[in-house]
User: Fold this.
Amino acid sequence: MAGQQLKAYVLLISTCWMLNACSKPASEIKHEDVKTNVTLEDIGPASTTMLAGHDGGKDKSVQPNILHPQLNNQAQNTPQIAYDYDYSFFGKSDTIEQLMMVHKNTCLAAGPIQCQLISSQVTRMDDGQSGMRHLTLRASSEWIKSFQTALTSNLKRLDITITSENITSEDLSASIVDMQARLDNKLALRNQLRATLAGHSGKMSELVDLESKLSEVQSDLDSNTAQMDMLKQRVAMSKLDLIYDTKAGMGARSAMAPVNSAIESFVPNMAMAIGFIISALSVLIPIGLIIGPITWVLVKRFKLRKMKSENKRSKDA
Assistant:
């Protein structure tokens, strides 16, 4: 009996020692590769997509929104609109030039990402000051908003008025969707041709035809890509036409217009009259050289007949 109790005691001690050696308290576990507080950032984008029910083997740039399905097509349904802004300003020559320089320098200071200077034209009158000025810009919506905000204060400070203000828009959504479909089709065709060309083992003529077709598809793909970039550029950057006119130029054209027109037309009118005379002489001189002698002969014969008839009458009398 004592031997059995001793064996049971030894077995109990051995079991406790083995359990103590094979297990440790939770506070003594070293967390080298395991994290207890796991967030979506720790999981990563690939695992997050799998949690949303997405197949990790498929590569898609836009994932569906399971919680809000109505937002899945929001990006595709967003209108792609290109805007054109036209402004015409009227004021004195010196202040108009200041306003133009303010707009030009503001655009250049913003950088090509926000604003691009397309063209700058100045047409001056004879006095060297009055005339017409024209700026063409392409700017982002943020820059145009700041331009419109500062425009009121600048016009009031320089005593300049707006003679016309037009905003036109063009919806390019259909064009962009159509061009994107063309790009997708051309891209898929190009990839298929590349795969076929890589595994082709047929005739040389077939290989040449494949390379020619691949080159043609790549050319179309590059052209469509350029057109897509232009469409997106029109949506991202609006066109801005600014026309500056001066009071001096308007006054000179309105008051002196008849006098200037008469002076300018004097020389052309004189030249036209001289040309008409020369043209008439070129026609009359040849006619006179032919008709003149004939007329002189007829007149001479008429006079001789008249003299003979008078002499005869005198003799009879």
In short: Residues 81-173+240-251 form a domain with the Alpha-Beta Plaits fold (CATH 3.30.70). The chain is about 65% helix and 15% strand. The radius of gyration is 48 Å.
